[in-house]
Specification:
The chain has 152 residues and is of the alpha+beta class. The chain has one domain: Immunoglobulin-like (Sandwich), CATH 2.60.40. It contains 3 helices and 10 strands; from the N terminus they run αβαβββαββββββ. The strands form 2 sheets. A 6-stranded antiparallel beta sheet has the order 1-2-3-4-8-7. A 4-stranded antiparallel beta sheet has the order 6-5-9-10. A hairpin with a 4-residue loop joins strand 5 and strand 6. It starts with a helix and ends with a strand.
Amino acid sequence: MKKAFSILFPLLAGLFLSACGSSAGPTPAATATPSEPGSPTTSLTRTNDEALVTVAITPLNLDEASASALTFKVVFDTHSVDLNYDLARLATLSSSTGEIVEPTTWTGAPGGGHHKEGVLAFPQLKNRGQTLTLTLRGIADVPERTFTWKVN
């Protein structure tokens, strides 16, 4: 019985860890997520997968230059890191003109866990320039994760 346990336990533990881990290496730069034809929202999604945490960000109203706020859906997924972060303090939005704003609100799940989702809202920029970049600092000890969209 002990011999069977000593053989099966490491095998089962290895299978469990491989299922929770990522088989791909880190992808530090935000990349576009493939989308279905006619689905503009998902074509705008950018993802970052570092330090066992995947972050996906989708702008919700990027094409509305006259909107009073720019909003972004943020989704975190991990199996090993507690996501107890205050995103209103860790995020910034900047334009290629050098203007930087901080979020006005984070509407999402409070506290930690392994799956977190919500919406970050930023004040509208005075001059959007050619690109907008959302930066998250300090998620799972990654100094910066950047997500960029062309706006003009």
